[in-house]
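tokens incoming
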């Protein structure tokens, strides 16, 4: 990877990191409302759960972006974390924080599907992957 390419990805990652941090800073938008109407209360619950899911995904995305910035700093950016092959530029252009090549990512996703229900807490605890 050339120095201009590395610089481009570094800037993309820093921009994405700022965007995600700003989104998390606005988590106060998730307000709890009490409604006397049962139907409205259920709609509010569904909306809160949806917003909570978005916040969870934002936190995971921020973690991945920060990890990619760290890989850039230690020289392992653009190298698959599973097979040590180079991650394609096409993939990095779409997902600059990608840690795996397409083949390994597909295998990881397949394994996750076979495992069953998603355990969200393990995704948030560093080192529990």
């Amino acid at each position: 990877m050339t120095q201009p390419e590395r610089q481009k990805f570094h800037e993309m990652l820093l921009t994405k990191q700022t965007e995600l941090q700003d989104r998390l800073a606005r988590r106060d938008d998730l307000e709890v409302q009490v409604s006397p109407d049962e139907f409205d209360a259920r709609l509010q619950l569904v909306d809160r759960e949806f917003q909570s899911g978005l916040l969870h995904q934002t936190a995971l995305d921020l973690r991945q972006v920060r990890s990619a910035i760290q890989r850039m700093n230690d020289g392992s950016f653009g190298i698959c974390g599973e097979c040590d092959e180079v991650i394609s530029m096409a993939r990095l252009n779409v997902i600059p924080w990608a840690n795996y090549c397409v083949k390994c990512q597909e295998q990881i996703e397949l394994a996750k599907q076979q495992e069953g229900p998603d355990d969200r807490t393990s995704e948030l605890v560093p080192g529990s992957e």
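note: DSSP finds five helices and no strands in the chain.
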